[in-house]
Amino acid sequence: MNEFIIKNGFISKDNSQIVGSLTATTYYGDGSNLIGVSGGFTGGTVTGATNFTSGLSANTISATTISGGTLYGDGSNLTGIVAHTTYTGGTTFTGITVNGNLTVTGTTSSGVISATTYQNLPTDIRVTGGTYSNGTATFTNNTGGTFNVTGFVSADTYVTGVTYTANTLTVSRNQGLSNLTATIGLNIKSGSVASGSFAGTPRTAAVTFTTAYPNTNYSITITGGNNRNYTYQSKATTGFTINTNANTALTADVDWQTIQYGES
Fold first, then answer.
1. What is 129-162 written as a DSSP string?
2. Under a CB-based contact definition with an 8 Å cutoff, are residues 27 and 8 in contact?
3. Cβ(252)–Cβ(224) under 8 Å?
4. Are residues 136 and 167 in the same domain?
């Protein structure tokens, strides 16, 4: 077996110098005795610290030559090494950490690149507090902005009164709110006309309702103490006229009653 001695940067056998590439499986030591070897290392593994006196360029060392290891030092002698790597062709990364700036040219999707933290996204706006006064709620968000919601009733609403007139129940409320009304049963009206109120030929008298009907769909009944053929005329929502169909003066009052059409 031939023995090669590495000494002072030269490979020697029988004190003769070999100039060219140094090819082997493993080189041990701190590498200081490899100074001066011309060419490059091919297919081998350098174990231990290795010193390079000349600069390394992209043509000498690249990302495809050294992988899976660690380079120590301040890197000042690694001139020409590209500081980034370009990946094309739909490369997918899983569980990686990017240190420094990441530049993406083209489009990305959730199936290609994902992360739990995104940079330079707009701030999420959320409500952080609010106040209420006189029917207006004012809300504050996390950016210091505010917005108002109006239309709230500023006080409790309650009933202030109830009346019942002519089959109509009326409920009044505070806050200036309109009254609530409900019709109970059929609307009935009744009254009496004094005998001296009849005049003319034949003698007639007008009846005026305190509250008008919504329409003229109501019936009329007329009775009196004097024997007359009482009829009505000029029927309206606000009243009607009683006709005694006689010229003789009445000596008794005349009663009348009206009721809306329908059943109850």
1. EEEEETTEEEEEETTS-EEEEE---SS---EEEE
2. no
3. yes
4. no
SS3 11: strand
Same domain, 143 and 176: no
- Report the C-alpha gap between 19 and 246 in whole angstroms: 155
Domain assignment of residue 22, given as a range: 1-88
Smallest Cα–Cα separation from 238: which of 210, 219, 205? 210
Last residue of a domain, one of 109, 139, 154: 154
Residue 223 corresponds to which tokens in the numbers above?
A: 């009775």
Question: Would 105 be classed as within a structural domain?
Answer: no
Is 0.85 topped by the overall pTM? no
Q: Which are the contacts of 60, defined by CB distance < 8 A and separation ≥ 6?
A: 40, 80
Tens digit of pLDDT at every position of the chain (264 positions): 445 554 444 444 444 444 444 444 444 455 554 544 444 444 555 555 555 455 444 444 444 444 334 454 555 555 545 455 666 666 666 667 777 677 777 666 655 455 555 566 788 889 999 998 888 899 999 998 999 998 777 667 788 899 987 678 899 988 778 888 887 777 889 999 999 999 999 999 999 999 899 899 999 999 999 999 999 999 999 999 999 999 999 999 999 999 999 887
